[in-house]
Design goal:
2 helices, 79 residues, single chain
Length: 79
């Protein structure tokens, strides 16, 4: 059981680092996009939309990992 808890915790920490990197990339994109009107440069707009979708997906994935860690720790305290 403790091995599963350790795995879930390590997975959560690695996914959290990726989450932070994605958020930083999105922030950089937003700073670069501040000067451009939406749709003016199609490739730039599609890149931003894809980045936002990826950040949204990864955030939900990371939240799921966090919930797994909470459940593992709750199970450990119950037994």
């Amino acid at each position: 059981m403790s091995d599963e808890s350790g795995y879930a915790s390590r997975k959560f920490h690695s996914h959290m680092l990726i989450e932070i990197a994605l958020i930083v990339a999105l922030a950089v994109y937003m700073v670069l996009a501040r000067e451009q009107p939406v749709g003016d440069n199609l490739i730039f707009t599609v890149t931003g939309a894809a980045l936002m979708a990826l950040v949204s997906y990864w955030t939900l994935h990371t939240i799921r990992d966090a919930l797994e860690v909470v459940v593992d720790r709750t199970r450990r305290f119950r037994h």
